[in-house]
Design brief:
The first copy, chain A, contains nine helices and two strands; from the N terminus they run H-H-E-E-H-H-H-H-H-H-H. Chain A has 280 residues and is mainly α.
Chain lengths: 280, 280, 280, 280
């Protein structure tokens, strides 16, 4: 992963996931606020989205683990080399471990949508754990590198642990649009920062960055704040576009609810009852 | 900014903003408690105040960024000097970044007052992010200075991150007068401490402070506590003055509610409904 | 304060305050649970206790500050010695600053009981700030001492900041008996640990402790845990004794409520209304 | 305790306790969700389980303390050796202190089940304190060891303090199945990690681990994440097995409620009333 592509790929995934979360929670919020008072069951449309999302997470994690293992200079599923008394390609194993937890999160998402007895919030908890594990591994990852390299990776931890804390809060504070958008914002920030790390450590063109210069570290710190501003702007734009699209669509179709709702099943009202007893 | 004025200007702004917040949330609290039971819509008077406040925030941020950029020894919108392979005046850029986020907070405040579909709490979230970014940049700012200089700036972080945490809590715990006054208190503390930094590092008269003496650090630590006490006293006095003024005014005018309320619009009751679904 | 007595006096105060808090919140809890359902107004008996408590806090703080200032080798209200260009007895000034905040907390307690418009929780907030300031000053106090001396004071910070966090939580989570007893427990722990510091640093008899020996630090760490256990035991015993005394008293008198309640004033029901709007 | 067995015994206890917590809170959740709406009183069956659990905790703690004291090379209840001016076997005393707090937690559990006046949450608070004390002692325990030894013990702290924080949250957020399972998960993680520490520091066969090699630390960090995944898997499997067993049992017996409920006593409804006033 020690090249530009190795940072661009996870960056793209996190960016996409952030946008997807923004889109999803905006649609859910529009739905909830357009309903009459009381507990609202989300239409089956959202459930199908959960299946697709979970499925893609599992697929991407599986591919990620396989690639890390069976790439040309990968460990090929060997963990310990007894001949040389050394561990084999621990970096690849660590990346695989990170992917594994995002895969687990995908499984929890599908299970959460499929089985109504599962308590609401399991999917957020697993995402929170996945981000915690990512940050946890990165934290020890960074040890003993050049100052700028260590600094730029430790700034990533702000986005990772921020997202983890935000997701964990979502387990307890349900259906709060601000919190959901905050989580999405942390994902977009993480994605764009992965790109920034790629540009700084493996510049596509131009001279290499001096990894020990203090001014470079000052710029990188400030640049992280600009990424925060850009992430907030991107989330705001996405929400606005989704909002106006839905409003125009619903005005032309007559009523958005009719377009999305099919039949509230008896089981989903049972789910709502479960949720209520969990929220107490 | 490395002079007394450079610390007095932001100090004055934070002091004013703290007093303004105290005034605003006291008036809102008086309004809420003087209403009959149930969800109360704030009168349009408060909405206009939000517009003015947001507008001033945007204006001050814009002026601040322009001054930092186009002051005589400023970067003049140049970020990287390719000839000398060095960054241009990063300190000015960092200050500009801080102002940018307070500007964003102003935009969010106006948008929050103008568009009723925006979830309540967006304005508090952006203020919290603005303070976080300020503290974040200061944290790395301080690195490698004289002991007293580093210490006096790190004490500032207590006020900055305290205000950030307090504002973030306000996103989730709405209309809590204690929390709102606590945030205002942190702003006043930050403002008065900026003045203190100016007095210590760039004394207007008398001898320079010894930046390495341990006793000076002990005094500065204690002095910060005195600033806390003074900030609490100032907030208490402001609240008392506002309270008694409103009570006398309302007694002479007959009823304060009549004085402030015009007509509760249909849209604002729609807003209250939105807020309720967010608060769940 | 660098002697046994200087640690025994604050220790005794904190022990007494802890027991007093335990007693008070047990009585309030008994009262609340013995009332019929709905918002209960505390009887005037508790309000009088608040006045006494606040008054004692203010008196003790005032005496403490005066003693620190005008003791034989005190600063006598002089802060800076211009002749020697040095600060005068900063340690005494720091202790005075700590007392000041406990005095402010006493004023807030009385004001909170006297004026019904004050939002509930102001008294807890000021206690939390007082403990935070105490811990804040101790934190920088400890710097550059012998290992055991620094360690034993930093353990005190666990009790101080624990109490501060617990009091701060009480601002938002009202009338939770467990939280109130936890705060009381932290005060008792702090008090008994002050005694322990006195015994270790200024032993009344026997040899001096070796301030650099690692085994001594290990013992002191373990000893802190024993103090936690003892504090929990003391709180439990106090609660039990109060509980059984009240129950026997109420059985012999007929009804405890009659014994304590006089007449619920119109104003206190107004207070309850205020509290409800704050708690939202 | 400096051998494999000394880590396997506490590991087994924590594993068993984690599984037991998972089993218990799954059964309680099934019970709560199968009841009609409103406050549900748990059947006496659960109360008996609390007695058994508390009794076992007390018994195990007592045995643990006795073994630590009176083992062949133990301190035999002597704390200070006046002849050599040294502390006697502080490590054994520290382990005994940890056991003591788990014993206190057992007493609180029994008292909580026996006396209805005790506020709900006391049992969780004592478990939280017990874990805090364990982590607190381990934190200073680790000081000055070989890098891998220190690292592997500091990873244990993640599980210990995580469990402590999770239990503390349970005091305030009652009957939340996700939080209860999270606590159980932290116990299982702690148990399995104790085994891992045993395997690494005192390998049963094969060569010793190099305690200074950086690759070993990287592997151990990653291995901790695998333990997290395994703990989550074990909790999920246990919950599933319990769930399906209960469902099949309840289908064959007719109704699960009838099988478990005997007679809701008048006193337990009084308890529910107490809980409600605490939760406010």
């Amino acid at each position: 992963m020690a090249n530009f592509g190795g940072h661009a790929i996870p960056g793209s995934f996190f960016l996409l996931f952030g946008f997807w979360l923004t889109l999803k929670c905006t649609l859910q919020h529009v739905w909830r606020t357009s309903q009459p008072k009381g507990r609202h069951n989300l239409p089956p449309f959202f459930k199908k989205m959960e299946y697709v999302e979970g499925g893609l997470q599992i697929f991407a994690s599986f591919v990620g683990i396989m690639v890390e293992q069976f790439v040309v200079d990968g460990p090929h599923a060997r963990l310990y080399d007894k001949e040389n008394n050394s561990w084999v390609k621990l970096m690849n194993w660590q990346h695989g471990t990170m992917y594994l937890f995002f895969g687990i999160s995908g499984i929890a998402r599908i299970a959460s949508a499929a089985f109504k007895v599962l308590p609401a919030g399991v999917d957020r908890l697993t995402i929170s754990v996945a981000l915690f594990v990512e940050g946890f591994l990165f934290y020890y990852h960074v040890h003993g590198r050049a100052p700028l390299d260590a600094h730029i990776h430790s700034l990533l931890l702000v986005a990772v642990f921020g997202g983890s804390a935000s997701s964990m809060l979502e387990v307890f504070i349900r259906d709060n649009i601000i919190l959901e958008l905050l989580t999405a914002c942390f994902f977009i920030l993480q994605g764009s920062w992965f790109y920034q790390i790629g540009f700084v450590l493996y510049p596509l063109s131009g001279p290499k960055w001096d990894l020990n210069q203090h001014d470079n570290m000052m710029f990188v710190t400030m640049c992280f704040c600009w990424h925060i501003a850009v992430a907030m702007l991107l989330v705001t734009c996405t929400v606005s576009v989704v909002w106006f699209t839905v409003k125009r669509f619903s005005a032309s179709r007559g009523d958005i609810e009719i377009g999305m709702q099919t039949t509230p099943s008896k089981s989903s009202s049972h789910r709502a009852l479960l949720e209520e007893s969990d929220d107490e």
